[in-house]
Amino acid sequence: MIAVALRGLLGRKLRAGLTAFAIVLGVAMISGGYVVTDTITKAFDTIFAQNYKNADVVVTGKTAFENNQGNGVDTPSFPESLLPKIKALADVAYAEGEVGDNETRLVDKQGKTISTSGAPAIAFSVDPKSDQRFNPVTLKAGSWPSGSHSIAIDSGTAADHGFRLGDSIGVTSRGAEQHFRISGILDYSAVQSVGSATIAVFDRPTAERLFDKVGRLDFIRIQSKAGVSTSKLLREVRPLLPSTAQVRDAAAQAKEDKKDVSGFLSVIQYALLAFGGIALFVGSFVIANTLSITIAQRVREFATLRTIGASRRQILGSVVLEAVVIGALGSVAGLFLGLVIAKALNALIVAVGIDLPRSGTVFATRTIVVSLVVGILVTLLASLRPALRATRVPPIAAVREGFVLPPSRFARFRTGFGALVTALGVGLLAVGLFVHGQSVASHLIALGVGLLLLFLGISIFAPRIVPPLASVLGWPATRIGGAAGSLARDNAMRNPSRTASTAAAVMIGLGLVTFVAILGQGLRSSFESAVNQLFVGDYALTSTDTFTPLTVKAEQALRKTPGLEAVSGIRAGSARYLGSVHNLTAVDPNLSKVIRIDWKEGSDSVPARLGRDGMFTDDAYAKKHHLRVGSPVRMQLPSGQSVQLEVKGIFKKPKGGSPFAEATISAALFDSKFPRPQNEMALMNMAGGVSTANTAALERRLGLFPDAKVQTESQFKKAFEAPINSLLALLYALLGLSVIVSVFGIINTLVLTVYERTREVGMLRAVGMTRRQVRRMIRHESIVTSLIGAALGIAVGFVLAALVTTELSAQGFVFAVPYANILVFVLAAIVVGILAAVLPARRASRLNVLEALQYE
Question: Rounded to whole angstroms, how far apart are CA atoms 766 and 768?
Fold first, then answer.
């Protein structure tokens, strides 16, 4: 039977190849996802290890808490007087201090800030007279910076922006632009690329002045004397540390640095694997449908085998073996195609503004094992039902013309079972969305399993609704295609189970695309509604990328602009209060002149009355924590200091959110407690409102702040929505894989049905149907099938979006339909149908009439 199965595969190369391709793309996505994230992870591991080379222990700043979900925390520095105390320890062989910053940006020759696309703008100090044993970068050309006007920059920035040794380059670091002479070009030789990050190096006195950390340090790297254990050195250093410093061994510090990055990379990896899983899920429908059709067409073959003595187990093994061979070949091809997909995925990630460090390609054993096992297992599971169906072929079928397998005894329960599975899927989705108090893993498992069951349930009972859908969606074909169109509609209705299974592959892809599109539109609509409600000012001042915090000195520079009536900044920071770490915002007394706030308790005078002990919050947070005007709140700052506050106002949070955190204090208090305050944004009113002259006046005042940008309300909206649009484009591209797989599913079905209807096509040709009409018939049948999948998918997308919107409605999220996108999806379904029909239509039209009529 093994030989029979293998000969069967060799005899149907096209079908086997098209079926295998359904697995290839899914496995390639999984393989590529692992390769790209493993490669990036290795680069970060190398970077963090390189940061502490030759160091045994490292002293760093110590924050009272961390905030990984919002504005982050500016780590406090510590007095540089600690360095000589450490050097004086008996077991210290060498120690060196460093000051650093991740907000020091370089300026290109056109006067624009060099974008890092969210990556850090790395800047730190070196001692040009030291032996550089701790320095993670190497000098490629020139010399280490020495003096108040020298800088060394990374080779990537130099090459990309045309800088050479001796050139002048602009630098902004929480203040106005300054110019430095390039004395050296650097390399981070441990990795191939540091992504979109930039590196700037100064001598320590210059760095302290530039970073506003005079007399302070951020790092002290320490090397012990020979024979001294790390634990002993740690015990000696700890008593010397102030409250704002901590010490770890080098490995522990590298692990700590990597912690945030590891979480981010895990999210990317799981997301890419999820999209690979979706493609494989779609591929399983293609495999199951293909095998079901071929089994129906091979009834006499199986019956003959049964007649000459083959057992049911052997027939089952033969079909399963075919599937396993197809799965294995597809998985191997997908595994190596993953190397190409990894490059494409990396390009997609870079296109949406995430350019991460890279080292040599990592092709781990885990990638090979998981890719092969998952690909073969999915194929095997998809083949079980068709294989079991093959065992039901009776020997007597060998001598009967046109024998068709009878429906299963469970077929009458199909509709009810499908409805039950669908209801179970919706129930799990509801649990994942609405039941709180679960772990993140529990939520994700409930959502993932619920989504799979939802699609599976719909595909089970879909045969019941295919005939009416095909009748309605195929009506245009009868008008456009005439007799060929009518036959195409009838063909789609002839075998509802087959059509439903083929359409299910399209349904899954378009269902998820529709879901993403509706959520994206809802997010945009919510944000625009909030801006329309809040934005009273004429202009907004933000960083050039709109999202990075901006030095308050840019706001201060605008105060002397002729015609300026008001400027009010909104500070951004973090604090711990009411038991949790939250974002923290701070405002100027004149806030009500530029932002309209709907006060539930209090009035527009609240911002001016905050003083040194006041805060305001939104109604949702106040309700959750039982706050009212006059309630006391104790707040801890990153430095460890605490302040006692009193609630002086509660505002009604608009749908779509607001620029304010759960707690907002006065800018005066914020500036006194945060050593280097930054604005999330600032809003301005100008005499005469928005005009070309006013815009030019504001921009002139910002001449020394190339990382600052003045925007009108409409520009502000577009800038905030740009990342949303980029993310949606990335999701569409990744979900497009499942749509591509569904195309091959339709091709497979049509090729096999053409084979099945060889005599029928021959008879149609004999009674006068032209080759063009045959092609048109196949093409219309493909389009109708694709449109059925689109109709089901768009409906499912609406249901999923409605469920998610219901959960998010409390945060102001609204349900909004992107009608233009939906129209594009329908047109895309038609294009999918046309493309899928090319090969089958050509094959059908080229059938020889006489050979087709005598075909058996």
Answer: 5
